[in-house]
Amino acid sequence: MGRKSSAQLTVSRWVRFSPWRNALLLTLDAAIACVGLWVAMLLRFEGRIWPEYSGIMVELAIVLVASRLTANFLFRLHRWSFRFSGLPDAARVVMAGLLGTGLFMSGVYFLQHKGPPRSVVVMELFLSTAAMGFVRFSPRLAWSFLADRTRSQKNGVVRTLIIGAGAAGEALLRDLQRSQEHNYRIVGFVDDDRAKLGMIVGGKPVLGAIPDLRSLVQRHQVGKVLIAIPRLSPKRIREILSLCTDLKVRFKILPVSFIYLRERLSASMLQDLSPDDLLPRPQVRFHESGQAALVRGRRTLVTGAAGSIGGEICLQLARAGIGDLVMADLNENGLYLLKRRLEREASVVPAFAEVADIRDADRMNGLVKRYAPQDIFHAAAHKHVPLLESAPCEAVKNNILATRDLAAIADALGVERFVYISTDKAVRPSSVMGASKRVGEMVVRARARQSQTRFCAVRFGNVLGSSGSVVPLFREQIAAGGPVTVTDPEVRRYFMTISEAVGLVLAAAYGDHGELCVLDMGEQIRIVELARAMITMTGQVPDVDIPIVFIGLRPGEKLYEELMTEEEEHAQKVADKIFVANCPAPPGNLDQRLRQLELAACAEDPQRVRDLLRDLVPSYQSTVLPLQPAEMERREDTLHLV
User: Fold this and answer.
1) Which class for 457: exposed (0-12), middle (13-18), buried (19 or more C-beta within 10 A)?
2) Contact, 348 vs 307, CB < 8 A?
3) Contact between 570 and 315 (Cβ < 8 Å)
């Protein structure tokens, strides 16, 4: 923060609370009352007070001062916040003025003293109230003027527009005007409501509506846009970004929590616009829901805990008050970092980090025996679509056989609930990864029909911001100056945030709805639009500052994903955004066919593995021929999420 000028320091010292400040304010109020009465008399009698009134001026002044000070004391006008005064405080000044006049007239009446003319009473009321208001509001105006002048003289000042001329926008402007902790120079407002066009809010004009944003940014040479409309729809945010696609302008937004902060708003609360703001997805907080009570005190094992989904499952369970939490993963570094985070955020939850390979049945059997979990969340999986196209045997070992073995262990050792994390790529799969996850669903559903354990598969689409996902990749490419690589102009994907996905997974798991739950993902988003929006958020121009390159679909990828097959589309919606799919029964000889898959995978026979996967999943069709390793490395770009 820059150093304050001597004038600002003087204002700051003057408005600061001190033992003498209250007495000074009351003394000024007394002087204002006396001067107000005298000026009102002069105005009433055209500059020369009649003798019959000049003789009683002292007595009238004493009664008036006593009345004004009493009223101001009752309305606590001596306890004034000069920097944070607002409209409610102005109302206090007016009410104190009216009460003071009432007390004055009452005092004159009860003392049976000759009173002033009624016109003098009215004029004195207006004069005194205006002067007392000026004394109290002028330091704030002076502070705002000096702060604005200081900012305008700074190097690097950014001309800024605020979107939203409502209560949030006005509160934000008010904070920016009295703060030195930013370099914004507000030029005006933009608002959806065209009826506000031309209005003055906090001294700044409403320059236009959101459709006018592009021309306003160009006309006023704006470098930053602050979005001050709480809960602005993601669709509207995408429209705002599209209007500024070829303009070098950066964005910040007020968090949703501003609604609950109200007067505690500050400029530091503004956040950079992020891809999460583009998703039409409300917050899902499992630990605040009624279902969280079902979790408290339970023992739970999470596989793949070091991954994005597994880690978020651990965090949300901990916030919900889980009993014992066992975190298993082969990634020891990620596991260590997760345990450290839990120690900071949920230290009361007993959390145990176990380095374990889910393909090691003996190791997993030992963990389940030792900790006796009541619930298992199986999030561990190989998920990268292009890599698994060249390693189908590994996909089978990790995504199918390990799931089969862990489900059998859970069944044998009396685990109460087993939840399998699946993916939309399991629907009419075009990749080995998708086919392996579809067979994993079959394994879990087959167990669900013959076990006392509640087995459930939960299927959903891409998770925004997970490790290895498109968003971190785009951020990395943008930071490096591009190019941003996208597979195809028409490729679309479902997205939801990690917290929402896991919140719904937990809701589906503890709701015990059925053997296959499908999460409502909303509408699909074009990846190229996401790339353009992310570039625009950084204040750069797509295809000018940061090029976008289309490199073609990678092995196993589709232009768009689906959440359910035709047979499953007759699903029953059991809760908000959770469907229970109408599933055909798994093959009766599933165990035998899994044994064949196991033999082929252990023999490292990729063609045999693919053939067996097609037998199990007739809709599995590879749509892209496998690429050579060098070409696959070049195309390692986006859309390989679970």
Assistant:
1) buried
2) no
3) no
Rounding to the nearest 10 degrees, give the CA dihedral for residues 285, 290, 296, 302: -50
CB 267 within 8 A of CB 173: no
Q: Please state, in angstroms and rounded to a whole number, the distance separating the CA atoms of residues 501 and 512.
A: 17
Angle at 314 between CA 311 and CA 320, to 5 degrees: 145
Closest of 345, 303, 295, 297 to residue 326, by C-alpha = 303
Cα separation, 117 vs 104, whole angstroms: 13
Residue 243 burial (10 A CB sphere; 0-12, 13-18, 19+): buried
Q: Name, in order, each residue with C-beta under 8 angstroms of 363's C-beta and a sequence gap of 6 or more.
A: 356, 357
- Give 471-494 pLDDT, tens digit per residue: 778 888 888 888 999 888 888 787
Across 304-408, the runs of DSSP E, i.e. the strands, are 324-329, 351-355, 375-378
Pairing of strands 351-355, 324-329: parallel
CA angle 349, 354, 356 (to 5 degrees): 150
CA 418 – CA 395 distance, rounded (Å): 21
In the numeric block, which tokens belong to residue 110?
A: 């009860």
17-26, 86-95, 518-527, 603-612 — most confident range: 603-612
pLDDT for the residue numbered 437 = 95
End-to-end CA, the chain: 44
Q: How many Å apart are CA 515 and CA 599, to the nearest integer?
A: 28
What distance in Å separates the CA atoms of residue 180 and residue 595, rounded to the nearest whole number?
70
Contact status, residue 11 vs residue 146, Cβ threshold 8 Å: yes
Closest CA to 163 of 83, 92, 98, 249: 249
Supply φ then ψ for residue 505, to 5 degrees: -60, -45
With beta carbons less than 8 A apart as the criterion, state whether 568 and 583 touch: yes
- Three-class DSSP category at 89: helix
Give, as one character, the DSSP assignment of residue 483.
Answer: P
- For 113, which DSSP code? P
Sign of the dihedral through C-alpha 138, 143, 144, 149: positive
- Tell me whether strands 454-460 and 516-519 are parallel, antiparallel or unpaired: parallel
Contact between residue 508 and residue 517 where contact means Cβ atoms under 8 Å apart: yes
- Count of CB atoms situated within 10 Å of the CB of 219: 12
Q: Please state, as a whole number, how many other Cβ atoms lie within 10 Å of the Cβ of residue 13.
A: 9
Question: Is the domain covering 286-634 a CATH 3.40.50.720 domain?
Answer: yes
Q: How confident is the model at residue 458 (pLDDT cuts 50, 70, 90)?
A: very high
Residues serving a catalytic function are 425
Q: 262-266, 468-472, 503-507, 625-629 — which one is most confidently predicted on average?
A: 503-507
Average confidence score pLDDT of the chain: 82
* Number of C-beta neighbours around residue 490 at 10 A: 11
Q: What CA–CA distance (Å, rounded) separates 3 from 79? A: 28
The Cα 166–Cα 195 span in angstroms is: 12
Superfamily, domain 154-273? NAD(P)-binding Rossmann-like Domain (3.40.50.720)
Task: Report the 10 Å Cβ neighbour count for 270.
Answer: 23
Q: Which residue has the tokens 């109460």?
A: 416
| 636: helix, strand or coil | coil
Task: Identify the residue whose tokens are 């003789």.
Answer: 55
- Highest average pLDDT, of 20-29, 49-58, 77-86, 212-221, comes from 212-221
Computed on alpha carbons and rounded to an integer, the radius of gyration of the chain in Å comes to 34
Q: Where in the chain is the domain with CATH 3.40.50.720?
A: 154-273, 286-634
